[in-house]
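Input.
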Amino acid sequence: MMQPSVAIVILNWNGKKYLEQFLPGVVQTHYAPLQVVVADNGSTDDSVAWLQQHFPEVRIVRFSENHGFAKGYNLALEQVSADYYLLLNSDVQVTEGFIGPLLELLESDASLAACQPKIRSYNHPQYFEYAGAAGGWMDHYCYPFAKGRVFDFTETDEGQYDVSAPIFWASGAALFIRSKVYHEAGGFDPYFFAHQEEIDLCWRIQLLGYGIRSCPQSVVYHVGGGTLPKGNSLKTYLNFRNNHIMMYKNMYGWRRLYVIFLRAVLDGVSAFKSLLGGDGGYFVAVASAHLSFVKWMLVDQKKSIFPKNKKGNLEGLLKKNIAWAHFVKGKKKFSEIVDKEVTN
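Output.
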């Protein structure tokens, strides 16, 4: 019986140093049939020349400009044929045999669309990494968090989340997904450019009736912040803007209205607190994000990808406010906030 085909697709933008460091491990992945594709997003360093010289077996898809994470992947995956895509950040170190558990999980259940490996920090290997940790969740007010990471607090990995379980979203740093479902859902929303596009996609996928799961039997290590470091104003702007667009698109009825209103209030409190603390850049980024969200509602909705269905059973959804639990009640860990019976 023929094995399902897998394409590891790495989106690159001026990331030669990461390709030099991590691509050799990716290329040495033991699985067949496998293809490794680097989609270059208009790099101005010599990434492409280096690839052509050192890894001629790697397929290169070239763009003349930087389309961002979302549109860049959409354009690249239109040109890649495989049963499964593994969307992998260029700053991720893979481990031996990491594809096997991911593939086995999705092959075991046709209702599952995507999964993610356990993601540890490359620089602090005993800790989970911010971007996804052991699987993404969402609270009632659309604050994303993860098993092993709540806001800026990351836990040490002591095996506490080593059982595969339903999650709300799988990290775009290492997203393993059925190709047909990626395209059925419409791919990433190109309007997002970057940040939270994988959460939006997984939300739309769940509304189609598919499941998303963690796969802790597979482990990778992520540097993180390779393109836009933490604290960057553009990153703050994109996160806030895209989060509100995502709420508007995927929610419906009265819940959408009150959640967006309440989030606007909470975002305003956070922004003014930062301004009083001397961080004017954060204040401007949040204010600009909200203005851009209004512009999107009035003018640009047609540029986004909306869910084909807005009613469905959502897994990995916390029906309370994680900000209250974390900042007011002082609960730091995922397992302290989410009921114990669903933490594994």
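The mean pLDDT is 94.
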